[in-house]
Amino acid sequence: MSQAGPIRVTVLVDTYNYGHFIEEAIDSVLAQNFPSEQMEILVVDDGSVDDTADRVRKYGDRVQYLCKPNGGQASALNFGIARARGAIVAFLDGDDYWLPDKLQCVAAEFEKHPEAGMVYHNFFCKRDAAPDQLPYSGLAGVSGFLPDNRKSLLGYDLFPTATLAFRRSVLEQVFPVPESLIVQADAHLTACAIFVAPIVYIDYPLTVYRVHADNMWNCVANTPQDCNVFEGDSAAKARLERRVITTRAIKEGVREWLEKKGFDTKRPELRAFLMRWTFSSRAGEFALSPPGRLRFFRHLLEQSWYFGSQMTWRHLAVHYTNAFGSLFVGYRNFHRLDEWRLAVKRSLRSALGRS
């Protein structure tokens, strides 16, 4: 791609065997309401064995196609980041796509907030077989320098790759990503970047995140309904096993980076921040191999201990009640506690004439 001036934005598309999706991803970048001469598009192919290469090469010099031996998402991101020339690096997975105003909005936020090291935003979620894209409201975005605010730090959710953009100067401080992260490599970047500079959240969707059978990370949303995810669906079980291994690796990588940068990871807020991955990996472990009642009870108490400050007193009361209830019903029937609580609540409202 010939350039008339300096590159403002590098669009880094990582892909692996997503030939059937990659054109929609690239087309969404080329359709951006943003000066094409101010951006470069790098497609890093992590050793695909499908027709990805043929599909990408037909774009000619509008796209730089970089193929490397298969090594996982971290190796692909490291490969691309090292070759990025833009002051801003925006990520896109090869199976997702952007809405037309994405880059313009992100670049505007970086200009408005010169101190910001990362800009991210909300997204739509689209199931592969469904025609519609739906708002995803399961995650909460925050802005600011998060280490200064315990509530924001512990309430910080990690968003999908395609919603993330960084100043290259910030990426250089958290680079390279540990290559043990075959998936979820962006989690290392988003977890570490918040300790380098403030972040900005855009509270409207600018990306479409695709849920499909070939997702390497998502383990429930791309499993057929009424399917026993972890016993009857081998692909879902494999994703869950990968999730357990990956969440442990993310925690270890972030902890090592923090300590290398001089942070005391024994501080209460940093211990709680790192514990999120412990709890996430345990959730996967429990689904694969249900825990005994005492182990599950201790797990729930630990959650309350570390994240109780994020809950209202009512939610905390329910959480402790459920924790003690788990001693009676166990892991497999734990969901029934909320069912019973809601049934009692409805009965009381009905009896009081408030239904």
What does this protein look like?
The protein has 355 residues and is of the alpha/beta class. 45% of the residues lie in helices and 15% in strands. The chain is built from 13 helices and nine strands. It has helices at 19-30, 52-57, 73-81, 102-112, 150-154, 168-174, 185-193, 229-232, 234-260, 268-288, 293-307, 313-329, 335-351; strands at 9-15, 39-45, 64-67, 88-93, 97-98, 118-127, 134-135, 164-167, 199-211. Strands 1, 2, 3, 4, 5, 6, 7, 8 and 9 form a nine-stranded mixed beta sheet that branches. Helix 7 (185-193) runs parallel beside helix 9. The longest helix has 27 residues, at 234-260. It is globular and about 70 Å long. The N and C termini lie far apart (64 Å). Mean pLDDT is 89; it is low at 219-229.
Short description:
This protein has 355 residues and is of the alpha/beta class. It contains 13 helices and 9 strands.
Contiguous uncertain segments of 5+ residues: 219-229
User: With helices defined by DSSP (H or I, 4 residues minimum), what is the helix count?
Assistant: 13
Largest sheet: 9 strands, mixed
What are the secondary-structure elements, in order, as H or E?
EHEHEHEEHEEHEHHEHHHHHH
- Please indicate the percent range of residues in DSSP E strands (runs of 2 or more): 15-25%
Shape: globular
* Range of helix content: 40-55%
Oligomer: single chain
* Average of pLDDT: 89
- Output the radius of gyration: 22 Å
Please tally the β strands and state the result.
9
SS-derived structural category:
alpha/beta
Q: Report, as a whole number of angstroms, the end-to-end distance.
A: 64 Å
